[in-house]
Amino acid sequence: MKWQGRRKSTNVNDQRGRSFGGGGRIALGGGGLGLVGIVIYLLITLMGGGNLGDVVDGAVLPPSSQQQSSQQQGTYQETQQEKELMGFLSVALADIEDTWSEILPKSEYQTAYKEPQMTIYTGQINTACGAADSGVGPFYCPGDHTIYLDLSFYNTLTKKYGAKEGDFAMVYVVAHEAGHHVQTLLGVTQQLNTLRQRVARGTMSQTEFNRYSVAFELQADYLAGVVARYMYERGYLEQGDLSEAMSAAAVVGDDAIQKRYQGYVDPDTFNHGTSAQRQEWFKRGFEAGDLSGWDTFKGL
Q1: Within 10 Å of residue 29's Cβ, how many Cβ atoms?
Q2: Which is nearest to 124 in space by CA: 106, 116, 136?
Q3: pLDDT tens digits, residue range 262-282?
Q4: How many domains does the chain have?
């Protein structure tokens, strides 16, 4: 991606090097635990004897005062790779802001775009959705309208999961999480949380809810594709960028992750979509360049 010399977002909060203490848990208030975190987190929790209800209660859990006071500034020395990551992700967030500031007011929803924050952290972080660590992967918290990201996820995505190396793999990640912010602004997140409450009351099965969760995540992939189209039309993309995004979408499919972590695939537990579905909806968003084809819930 051509990013040098272009506008950087002012909504990036650098929290790297801060120490964190105290307990807590992150809840799914909408936007999930990120691209791969929810799948891995559920697998580890359930295989370790954990309680699924501790994860999918849909609550927004503000950090306690004790947790807040235990987060202290430390000394952090960034690598050259991290410096470049910070640079182009700040530019990518600016492009995301420009995309939705232009599209949403002109859409059928006629909604002004309220810019999200993006917090870069290391290790652990307190959020309006509870305490989280880098193991959950990138995620969006609707409680504070913030995207949370540990830059080490780039190495996880490329070296551990096998996505193609390149800056646009991470642009896809951030654009997906920003897609959850758009869903929150347009009320989709709230609708999903209503369904999640039905699971808690026992009036909807987890398997049935998972179908809506998949649609929710694929919609965020579609919205990431819309952002990529905006960048393409302005000449910001370079050869191979779209291939990097498609590769990233493939390696974070539910089927790919489940096969890696548990050795088999269980479609009833999918909550983000298969590799093929994630690629397909990103492609649809790129081809449309607007919200005309974003209804992934049709037919459910």
Answers
A1: 26
A2: 136
A3: 999 999 999 999 999 999 999
A4: 1
